[in-house]
From TrEMBL:
PANTHER family: G DOMAIN-CONTAINING PROTEIN, TRNA MODIFICATION GTPASE GTPBP3. Signal peptide: none annotated. Residues 415-436 are annotated as: Disordered. One of its GO terms (biological process) is tRNA methylation. It holds the Pfam family DUF3482. GO terms for cellular component: cytosol. Residues 11-157 form the G domain. This is Probable integral membrane protein NMA1898. GO terms for molecular function: GTP binding.
Length: 480
Protein backbone atom coordinates (compact mmCIF):
# COMPACT_ATOMS: atom_id res chain seq x y z
CA UNK A 1 0.00 0.00 0.00
CA UNK A 2 1.36 3.43 -0.97
CA UNK A 3 2.10 6.24 1.47
CA UNK A 4 -0.65 8.22 -0.21
CA UNK A 5 -3.17 5.49 0.50
CA UNK A 6 -2.15 5.13 4.16
CA UNK A 7 -2.29 8.91 4.77
CA UNK A 8 -5.67 9.35 3.08
CA UNK A 9 -8.37 10.41 5.54
CA UNK A 10 -11.70 8.76 4.75
CA UNK A 11 -15.05 10.27 5.77
CA UNK A 12 -18.48 8.74 5.41
CA UNK A 13 -21.31 11.24 4.95
CA UNK A 14 -24.28 9.63 6.65
CA UNK A 15 -27.74 10.50 7.93
CA UNK A 16 -31.43 10.03 7.49
CA UNK A 17 -33.00 10.15 4.05
CA UNK A 18 -33.28 13.56 2.38
CA UNK A 19 -31.27 15.61 4.89
CA UNK A 20 -28.81 17.01 2.34
CA UNK A 21 -25.93 14.52 2.33
CA UNK A 22 -25.37 14.81 -1.41
CA UNK A 23 -25.81 18.56 -1.14
CA UNK A 24 -23.01 18.67 1.44
CA UNK A 25 -20.75 16.68 -0.89
CA UNK A 26 -21.50 19.04 -3.77
CA UNK A 27 -20.52 22.05 -1.72
CA UNK A 28 -17.40 20.49 -0.17
CA UNK A 29 -16.17 19.28 -3.56
CA UNK A 30 -17.32 22.46 -5.38
CA UNK A 31 -19.01 20.17 -7.89
CA UNK A 32 -22.67 20.98 -8.68
CA UNK A 33 -22.91 17.80 -10.73
CA UNK A 34 -21.97 15.37 -7.95
CA UNK A 35 -24.69 12.80 -7.30
CA UNK A 36 -28.39 13.51 -7.60
CA UNK A 37 -30.16 16.14 -5.51
CA UNK A 38 -33.95 15.98 -5.37
CA UNK A 39 -36.80 16.55 -2.95
CA UNK A 40 -37.82 12.90 -3.09
CA UNK A 41 -36.46 10.67 -0.31
CA UNK A 42 -34.03 7.89 -1.05
CA UNK A 43 -32.35 9.58 -4.03
CA UNK A 44 -28.91 8.11 -3.25
CA UNK A 45 -29.02 4.32 -3.38
CA UNK A 46 -25.32 3.50 -3.67
CA UNK A 47 -22.11 4.72 -2.11
CA UNK A 48 -20.40 7.40 -4.21
CA UNK A 49 -17.07 9.02 -3.48
CA UNK A 50 -14.81 11.97 -4.24
CA UNK A 51 -11.30 12.98 -3.24
CA UNK A 52 -9.92 16.35 -2.23
CA UNK A 53 -6.33 17.05 -3.20
CA UNK A 54 -3.67 19.21 -1.56
CA UNK A 55 -0.78 20.07 -3.88
CA UNK A 56 -1.58 17.08 -6.09
CA UNK A 57 -1.77 14.61 -3.21
CA UNK A 58 -5.10 12.98 -2.26
CA UNK A 59 -5.77 14.08 1.31
CA UNK A 60 -9.44 13.49 2.01
CA UNK A 61 -11.87 10.93 0.60
CA UNK A 62 -15.57 11.71 1.02
CA UNK A 63 -18.23 9.04 0.57
CA UNK A 64 -21.91 9.78 -0.02
CA UNK A 65 -24.02 6.99 1.43
CA UNK A 66 -27.71 6.01 1.13
CA UNK A 67 -30.14 7.44 3.62
CA UNK A 68 -30.89 5.52 6.80
CA UNK A 69 -34.58 4.67 6.62
CA UNK A 70 -35.29 2.08 9.29
CA UNK A 71 -32.83 2.51 12.13
CA UNK A 72 -35.49 1.60 14.69
CA UNK A 73 -36.29 -1.70 12.98
CA UNK A 74 -32.62 -2.57 12.61
CA UNK A 75 -31.94 -1.93 16.30
CA UNK A 76 -34.78 -4.26 17.22
CA UNK A 77 -33.39 -6.87 14.83
CA UNK A 78 -29.92 -6.62 16.37
CA UNK A 79 -31.40 -7.14 19.85
CA UNK A 80 -33.03 -10.38 18.66
CA UNK A 81 -29.84 -11.88 17.27
CA UNK A 82 -28.53 -14.68 19.53
CA UNK A 83 -25.32 -13.99 21.37
CA UNK A 84 -22.25 -15.75 20.00
CA UNK A 85 -20.72 -18.62 21.96
CA UNK A 86 -17.67 -16.45 22.65
CA UNK A 87 -19.78 -14.09 24.75
CA UNK A 88 -20.74 -10.39 24.55
CA UNK A 89 -19.63 -8.42 21.45
CA UNK A 90 -18.62 -4.78 21.37
CA UNK A 91 -20.24 -2.29 18.99
CA UNK A 92 -18.10 -2.95 15.90
CA UNK A 93 -18.39 -6.68 16.55
CA UNK A 94 -22.21 -6.47 16.60
CA UNK A 95 -22.23 -4.51 13.33
CA UNK A 96 -19.81 -6.93 11.67
CA UNK A 97 -21.98 -9.87 12.73
CA UNK A 98 -25.06 -8.13 11.32
CA UNK A 99 -23.35 -7.60 7.97
CA UNK A 100 -22.98 -11.37 7.67
CA UNK A 101 -26.71 -12.02 8.07
CA UNK A 102 -29.22 -12.49 5.22
CA UNK A 103 -31.11 -9.38 6.40
CA UNK A 104 -28.06 -7.27 5.52
CA UNK A 105 -28.66 -8.25 1.91
CA UNK A 106 -32.42 -7.99 2.14
CA UNK A 107 -34.65 -5.83 4.32
CA UNK A 108 -31.78 -3.76 5.76
CA UNK A 109 -29.59 -3.67 2.68
CA UNK A 110 -29.50 0.12 2.57
CA UNK A 111 -28.51 0.44 6.23
CA UNK A 112 -25.91 -2.29 5.72
CA UNK A 113 -24.24 -0.27 2.96
CA UNK A 114 -23.97 2.71 5.28
CA UNK A 115 -22.58 0.77 8.24
CA UNK A 116 -20.11 -1.18 6.10
CA UNK A 117 -18.76 2.04 4.62
CA UNK A 118 -18.44 3.65 8.06
CA UNK A 119 -16.44 0.67 9.34
CA UNK A 120 -14.08 1.28 6.44
CA UNK A 121 -13.72 5.02 7.21
CA UNK A 122 -11.96 7.08 9.86
CA UNK A 123 -14.99 9.15 10.87
CA UNK A 124 -18.50 10.19 9.87
CA UNK A 125 -20.31 13.42 9.14
CA UNK A 126 -23.89 12.92 10.34
CA UNK A 127 -26.01 15.34 8.31
CA UNK A 128 -29.14 16.73 9.97
CA UNK A 129 -31.85 18.85 8.40
CA UNK A 130 -32.14 21.51 11.10
CA UNK A 131 -35.73 22.15 10.02
CA UNK A 132 -36.82 18.63 11.07
CA UNK A 133 -38.15 17.90 14.54
CA UNK A 134 -36.02 15.72 16.80
CA UNK A 135 -37.50 12.21 16.64
CA UNK A 136 -36.75 8.79 18.04
CA UNK A 137 -35.51 7.58 14.65
CA UNK A 138 -32.59 9.98 14.86
CA UNK A 139 -31.53 8.58 18.23
CA UNK A 140 -31.71 5.04 16.83
CA UNK A 141 -29.61 6.03 13.81
CA UNK A 142 -26.97 7.63 16.00
CA UNK A 143 -26.88 4.57 18.27
CA UNK A 144 -26.26 2.32 15.24
CA UNK A 145 -23.56 4.61 13.90
CA UNK A 146 -21.91 4.82 17.33
CA UNK A 147 -21.67 1.02 17.36
CA UNK A 148 -19.22 1.30 14.45
CA UNK A 149 -16.71 2.82 16.88
CA UNK A 150 -15.85 5.80 14.70
CA UNK A 151 -15.93 9.51 15.64
CA UNK A 152 -19.15 11.20 14.55
CA UNK A 153 -19.51 14.92 13.84
CA UNK A 154 -23.12 16.11 13.52
CA UNK A 155 -23.57 18.68 10.73
CA UNK A 156 -26.64 20.90 11.04
CA UNK A 157 -27.79 21.69 7.50
CA UNK A 158 -30.22 24.42 6.33
CA UNK A 159 -29.49 26.55 9.39
CA UNK A 160 -30.28 29.72 7.42
CA UNK A 161 -33.94 28.71 7.10
CA UNK A 162 -36.54 30.62 9.08
CA UNK A 163 -38.06 27.40 10.44
CA UNK A 164 -34.80 25.90 11.71
CA UNK A 165 -34.80 24.06 15.05
CA UNK A 166 -31.14 24.56 15.90
CA UNK A 167 -31.54 24.93 19.71
CA UNK A 168 -33.61 21.74 19.90
CA UNK A 169 -31.00 19.80 17.96
CA UNK A 170 -28.12 21.13 20.04
CA UNK A 171 -29.87 20.07 23.22
CA UNK A 172 -30.78 16.62 21.86
CA UNK A 173 -27.26 15.92 20.61
CA UNK A 174 -25.77 17.03 23.92
CA UNK A 175 -27.97 14.50 25.75
CA UNK A 176 -26.48 11.83 23.47
CA UNK A 177 -22.97 12.96 24.36
CA UNK A 178 -22.34 14.66 21.01
CA UNK A 179 -21.14 18.06 22.16
CA UNK A 180 -18.95 18.75 19.13
CA UNK A 181 -21.08 19.77 16.16
CA UNK A 182 -21.00 22.28 13.34
CA UNK A 183 -23.57 24.41 11.53
CA UNK A 184 -23.06 24.27 7.78
CA UNK A 185 -25.76 25.42 5.38
CA UNK A 186 -25.08 23.69 2.07
CA UNK A 187 -27.07 26.27 0.11
CA UNK A 188 -25.40 29.37 1.56
CA UNK A 189 -22.43 28.37 3.71
CA UNK A 190 -20.40 30.88 5.67
CA UNK A 191 -17.22 32.03 3.93
CA UNK A 192 -15.17 30.06 6.45
CA UNK A 193 -17.73 27.26 6.71
CA UNK A 194 -15.43 24.55 5.35
CA UNK A 195 -12.62 25.61 7.66
CA UNK A 196 -14.96 25.46 10.66
CA UNK A 197 -16.20 22.01 9.68
CA UNK A 198 -12.74 20.52 9.25
CA UNK A 199 -11.36 22.25 12.34
CA UNK A 200 -14.16 20.79 14.47
CA UNK A 201 -13.66 17.36 12.90
CA UNK A 202 -9.94 17.56 13.65
CA UNK A 203 -10.77 17.80 17.37
CA UNK A 204 -12.18 14.25 17.18
CA UNK A 205 -9.21 12.65 15.42
CA UNK A 206 -5.67 11.71 16.34
CA UNK A 207 -2.78 14.10 15.75
CA UNK A 208 -1.73 12.68 12.37
CA UNK A 209 -5.24 13.00 10.95
CA UNK A 210 -5.61 16.42 12.53
CA UNK A 211 -2.43 17.59 10.75
CA UNK A 212 -3.84 16.40 7.40
CA UNK A 213 -7.00 18.42 7.99
CA UNK A 214 -4.94 21.49 8.89
CA UNK A 215 -3.14 21.22 5.55
CA UNK A 216 -6.48 20.95 3.80
CA UNK A 217 -7.89 23.97 5.65
CA UNK A 218 -4.83 26.05 4.73
CA UNK A 219 -5.13 24.99 1.10
CA UNK A 220 -8.84 25.84 0.99
CA UNK A 221 -8.16 29.28 2.42
CA UNK A 222 -5.44 29.86 -0.18
CA UNK A 223 -7.77 28.76 -2.99
CA UNK A 224 -10.55 31.04 -1.75
CA UNK A 225 -8.26 34.07 -1.71
CA UNK A 226 -6.92 33.23 -5.17
CA UNK A 227 -10.45 32.94 -6.55
CA UNK A 228 -11.36 36.30 -5.05
CA UNK A 229 -8.31 37.97 -6.59
CA UNK A 230 -8.99 36.31 -9.95
CA UNK A 231 -12.63 37.44 -9.84
CA UNK A 232 -11.73 41.06 -9.11
CA UNK A 233 -9.13 41.00 -11.87
CA UNK A 234 -11.80 39.77 -14.32
CA UNK A 235 -14.08 42.63 -13.22
CA UNK A 236 -11.21 45.11 -13.52
CA UNK A 237 -10.43 43.96 -17.07
CA UNK A 238 -14.07 44.49 -17.99
CA UNK A 239 -14.10 48.00 -16.51
CA UNK A 240 -10.84 49.05 -18.21
CA UNK A 241 -12.14 47.71 -21.52
CA UNK A 242 -15.38 49.64 -21.12
CA UNK A 243 -13.77 52.88 -19.91
CA UNK A 244 -11.20 52.95 -22.70
CA UNK A 245 -13.63 52.02 -25.49
CA UNK A 246 -14.33 54.68 -28.09
CA UNK A 247 -16.39 54.37 -31.24
CA UNK A 248 -15.96 57.08 -33.88
CA UNK A 249 -18.50 58.17 -36.44
CA UNK A 250 -19.32 60.94 -38.89
CA UNK A 251 -21.51 63.76 -37.66
CA UNK A 252 -24.76 62.50 -39.15
CA UNK A 253 -27.82 61.09 -37.49
CA UNK A 254 -27.50 57.69 -39.18
CA UNK A 255 -23.81 57.39 -38.33
CA UNK A 256 -24.40 58.44 -34.71
CA UNK A 257 -27.18 55.88 -34.27
CA UNK A 258 -25.04 53.12 -35.75
CA UNK A 259 -22.10 54.10 -33.51
CA UNK A 260 -24.28 54.09 -30.40
CA UNK A 261 -25.64 50.65 -31.24
CA UNK A 262 -22.14 49.34 -31.93
CA UNK A 263 -20.86 50.68 -28.60
CA UNK A 264 -23.79 49.23 -26.68
CA UNK A 265 -23.40 45.83 -28.33
CA UNK A 266 -19.68 45.64 -27.61
CA UNK A 267 -20.09 46.57 -23.95
CA UNK A 268 -23.00 44.20 -23.44
CA UNK A 269 -21.10 41.33 -24.98
CA UNK A 270 -18.03 42.20 -22.92
CA UNK A 271 -20.08 42.10 -19.71
CA UNK A 272 -21.55 38.76 -20.73
CA UNK A 273 -18.02 37.42 -21.18
CA UNK A 274 -17.19 38.61 -17.66
CA UNK A 275 -20.27 36.88 -16.24
CA UNK A 276 -19.30 33.66 -18.00
CA UNK A 277 -15.75 33.92 -16.64
CA UNK A 278 -16.98 34.46 -13.06
CA UNK A 279 -19.38 31.51 -13.25
CA UNK A 280 -16.58 29.31 -14.56
CA UNK A 281 -14.12 30.54 -11.92
CA UNK A 282 -16.48 29.51 -9.11
CA UNK A 283 -17.50 26.35 -10.97
CA UNK A 284 -21.12 27.29 -11.59
CA UNK A 285 -23.22 27.02 -14.74
CA UNK A 286 -25.12 29.66 -16.72
CA UNK A 287 -28.35 28.25 -15.30
CA UNK A 288 -27.16 29.21 -11.81
CA UNK A 289 -27.66 32.90 -12.67
CA UNK A 290 -31.20 34.26 -13.04
CA UNK A 291 -31.86 34.71 -16.77
CA UNK A 292 -33.49 38.10 -16.32
CA UNK A 293 -30.29 39.38 -14.71
CA UNK A 294 -27.93 38.12 -17.40
CA UNK A 295 -26.56 40.90 -19.64
CA UNK A 296 -27.41 38.84 -22.69
CA UNK A 297 -30.02 36.09 -22.92
CA UNK A 298 -30.31 34.54 -26.36
CA UNK A 299 -31.31 37.27 -28.78
CA UNK A 300 -32.86 39.55 -26.17
CA UNK A 301 -31.28 41.82 -23.63
CA UNK A 302 -32.06 41.21 -20.00
CA UNK A 303 -31.15 43.72 -17.29
CA UNK A 304 -29.88 46.22 -19.83
CA UNK A 305 -26.86 48.34 -19.04
CA UNK A 306 -28.23 51.34 -20.90
CA UNK A 307 -31.64 51.37 -19.26
CA UNK A 308 -32.00 54.14 -16.64
CA UNK A 309 -34.10 51.81 -14.49
CA UNK A 310 -31.19 49.35 -14.27
CA UNK A 311 -29.08 52.18 -12.84
CA UNK A 312 -31.74 53.10 -10.30
CA UNK A 313 -32.25 49.46 -9.30
CA UNK A 314 -28.58 49.25 -8.36
CA UNK A 315 -28.73 52.43 -6.31
CA UNK A 316 -26.82 54.55 -8.83
CA UNK A 317 -27.97 58.14 -9.16
CA UNK A 318 -28.20 59.19 -12.77
CA UNK A 319 -25.56 61.69 -13.74
CA UNK A 320 -26.14 64.95 -15.52
CA UNK A 321 -25.88 63.42 -18.97
CA UNK A 322 -28.20 60.50 -18.27
CA UNK A 323 -30.78 62.60 -16.44
CA UNK A 324 -30.93 65.14 -19.26
CA UNK A 325 -30.75 62.62 -22.09
CA UNK A 326 -34.31 62.92 -23.32
CA UNK A 327 -34.26 66.72 -23.17
CA UNK A 328 -30.99 66.88 -25.06
CA UNK A 329 -32.37 64.70 -27.80
CA UNK A 330 -35.44 66.89 -28.14
CA UNK A 331 -33.32 70.00 -28.19
CA UNK A 332 -31.18 68.65 -30.99
CA UNK A 333 -34.23 68.28 -33.21
CA UNK A 334 -34.91 72.00 -32.88
CA UNK A 335 -31.37 73.31 -32.95
CA UNK A 336 -30.20 71.31 -35.92
CA UNK A 337 -33.25 71.56 -38.13
CA UNK A 338 -34.30 67.92 -37.79
CA UNK A 339 -30.82 66.37 -37.48
CA UNK A 340 -31.08 64.46 -34.19
CA UNK A 341 -29.31 61.65 -32.37
CA UNK A 342 -31.99 59.05 -32.62
CA UNK A 343 -35.49 60.22 -33.48
CA UNK A 344 -35.66 62.93 -30.87
CA UNK A 345 -34.58 61.05 -27.74
CA UNK A 346 -32.10 58.31 -28.77
CA UNK A 347 -33.28 55.91 -26.06
CA UNK A 348 -34.14 58.70 -23.67
CA UNK A 349 -32.10 59.23 -20.55
CA UNK A 350 -29.88 56.24 -21.23
CA UNK A 351 -28.64 57.88 -24.41
CA UNK A 352 -27.66 61.00 -22.52
CA UNK A 353 -25.39 58.86 -20.34
CA UNK A 354 -23.63 57.28 -23.30
CA UNK A 355 -21.43 60.22 -24.04
CA UNK A 356 -18.65 60.82 -21.59
CA UNK A 357 -18.41 64.56 -20.94
CA UNK A 358 -21.89 65.89 -21.60
CA UNK A 359 -20.63 69.45 -21.96
CA UNK A 360 -18.12 68.49 -24.64
CA UNK A 361 -20.74 66.51 -26.52
CA UNK A 362 -23.15 69.42 -26.20
CA UNK A 363 -20.64 71.68 -27.92
CA UNK A 364 -20.43 69.18 -30.74
CA UNK A 365 -24.19 69.20 -31.05
CA UNK A 366 -24.11 72.97 -31.28
CA UNK A 367 -21.56 72.71 -34.06
CA UNK A 368 -24.18 70.65 -35.99
CA UNK A 369 -22.17 67.45 -35.66
CA UNK A 370 -19.52 68.49 -38.15
CA UNK A 371 -16.61 66.11 -38.67
CA UNK A 372 -15.93 62.90 -36.79
CA UNK A 373 -17.22 62.22 -33.29
CA UNK A 374 -15.93 59.88 -30.59
CA UNK A 375 -18.54 58.13 -28.44
CA UNK A 376 -17.64 56.43 -25.15
CA UNK A 377 -19.35 54.86 -22.14
CA UNK A 378 -20.63 57.23 -19.47
CA UNK A 379 -19.63 57.18 -15.81
CA UNK A 380 -23.06 55.93 -14.74
CA UNK A 381 -22.81 52.86 -16.93
CA UNK A 382 -19.29 52.16 -15.63
CA UNK A 383 -20.61 52.32 -12.10
CA UNK A 384 -23.38 49.89 -12.99
CA UNK A 385 -20.86 47.49 -14.50
CA UNK A 386 -18.68 47.69 -11.40
CA UNK A 387 -21.49 47.27 -8.88
CA UNK A 388 -23.21 44.48 -10.78
CA UNK A 389 -20.13 42.36 -11.34
CA UNK A 390 -18.76 42.87 -7.82
CA UNK A 391 -22.13 41.82 -6.41
CA UNK A 392 -22.11 38.75 -8.64
CA UNK A 393 -18.59 37.78 -7.49
CA UNK A 394 -19.65 38.15 -3.84
CA UNK A 395 -22.83 36.13 -4.41
CA UNK A 396 -20.92 33.29 -6.09
CA UNK A 397 -18.34 33.23 -3.30
CA UNK A 398 -21.13 32.76 -0.75
CA UNK A 399 -23.14 30.28 -2.79
CA UNK A 400 -23.10 26.57 -2.02
CA UNK A 401 -22.89 24.19 -4.94
CA UNK A 402 -26.04 22.49 -3.70
CA UNK A 403 -28.11 25.65 -4.27
CA UNK A 404 -30.84 25.15 -6.83
CA UNK A 405 -32.45 28.59 -7.05
CA UNK A 406 -30.64 30.95 -9.47
CA UNK A 407 -28.46 33.74 -8.09
CA UNK A 408 -30.25 37.05 -7.65
CA UNK A 409 -28.19 40.13 -6.88
CA UNK A 410 -28.99 42.08 -3.73
CA UNK A 411 -28.72 45.72 -4.71
CA UNK A 412 -28.93 46.76 -1.06
CA UNK A 413 -25.45 45.35 -0.41
CA UNK A 414 -22.06 46.19 -1.84
CA UNK A 415 -19.68 49.12 -1.80
CA UNK A 416 -21.35 52.52 -1.78
CA UNK A 417 -18.19 54.15 -3.09
CA UNK A 418 -18.74 52.39 -6.44
CA UNK A 419 -22.15 54.04 -6.70
CA UNK A 420 -21.05 57.61 -6.02
CA UNK A 421 -17.95 59.75 -5.69
CA UNK A 422 -15.08 59.98 -8.19
CA UNK A 423 -14.29 57.01 -10.36
CA UNK A 424 -11.10 55.12 -9.42
CA UNK A 425 -8.06 56.73 -11.02
CA UNK A 426 -7.28 53.71 -13.29
CA UNK A 427 -10.67 54.19 -14.98
CA UNK A 428 -10.08 57.91 -15.42
CA UNK A 429 -6.68 57.13 -16.94
CA UNK A 430 -8.25 54.59 -19.30
CA UNK A 431 -10.45 57.32 -20.78
CA UNK A 432 -7.50 58.71 -22.69
CA UNK A 433 -6.14 55.33 -23.78
CA UNK A 434 -8.55 53.85 -26.35
CA UNK A 435 -5.92 51.27 -27.36
CA UNK A 436 -6.33 49.69 -23.89
CA UNK A 437 -9.80 48.40 -24.73
CA UNK A 438 -9.99 44.81 -25.93
CA UNK A 439 -13.41 45.77 -27.34
CA UNK A 440 -11.93 48.44 -29.59
CA UNK A 441 -10.59 48.34 -33.11
CA UNK A 442 -7.10 49.55 -32.13
CA UNK A 443 -6.42 47.25 -29.19
CA UNK A 444 -2.75 47.21 -28.18
CA UNK A 445 -2.15 45.48 -24.82
CA UNK A 446 0.83 46.69 -22.86
CA UNK A 447 2.35 47.45 -19.50
CA UNK A 448 0.16 50.52 -18.98
CA UNK A 449 -3.06 48.51 -19.33
CA UNK A 450 -1.75 45.75 -17.07
CA UNK A 451 -0.74 48.27 -14.43
CA UNK A 452 -4.18 49.93 -14.55
CA UNK A 453 -5.92 46.54 -14.19
CA UNK A 454 -3.74 45.57 -11.23
CA UNK A 455 -4.31 48.90 -9.46
CA UNK A 456 -8.05 48.73 -10.05
CA UNK A 457 -8.26 45.12 -8.81
CA UNK A 458 -6.40 46.10 -5.64
CA UNK A 459 -8.74 49.05 -5.10
CA UNK A 460 -11.78 46.80 -5.51
CA UNK A 461 -10.29 44.29 -3.07
CA UNK A 462 -9.65 46.97 -0.47
CA UNK A 463 -13.14 48.37 -0.91
CA UNK A 464 -14.63 44.89 -0.56
CA UNK A 465 -12.69 44.18 2.64
CA UNK A 466 -13.63 47.58 4.07
CA UNK A 467 -17.31 46.93 3.31
CA UNK A 468 -17.09 43.52 4.97
CA UNK A 469 -15.57 45.05 8.11
CA UNK A 470 -18.32 47.66 8.20
CA UNK A 471 -21.01 44.99 8.01
CA UNK A 472 -19.31 42.95 10.76
CA UNK A 473 -19.06 46.01 12.98
CA UNK A 474 -22.72 46.83 12.43
CA UNK A 475 -23.78 43.27 13.31
CA UNK A 476 -21.61 43.30 16.42
CA UNK A 477 -23.17 46.58 17.48
CA UNK A 478 -26.65 45.11 16.98
CA UNK A 479 -25.80 42.09 19.14
CA UNK A 480 -24.64 44.40 21.93
Amino acid sequence: MSDHATSLLKLAVVGHTNTGKTSLLRTLTRNPGFGVVADEPGTTRHVEGARLMVQGEPTLALYDTPGLEDGMGLRDYLEQLPRPASGRLDGPGRITRFLDTPEARGRYEQEARVLAKLLDCDAALYVIDARDPVLGKHRDELALLADCGRPILPVLNFVNSDNRRTPEWRAALARLGLHALVEFDTVAPALDGEQQLYARLGMLLDQDRHAALERLVHDLDTQRKERRRAALRAVSELLIDAAALKVTCEGTEEAAQAAVQALQTRVRQREQACVTALLSLYNFRASDYAANELPLTGNRWGMDLFNPQALRDMGIQLGKGAAAGAMAGAAVDVMTGGLSLGAGTLAGAAAGGLWQGGERWGKRILSRLRGWQAISVGDDVLRLLAVRQCLLADALERRGHAARAPVKLDAATGADSLRRGPLPSPLRDARGQPHWSACGDDYQPGAGRERAIALLAQALLEERDAAKHRVSAEREAERR
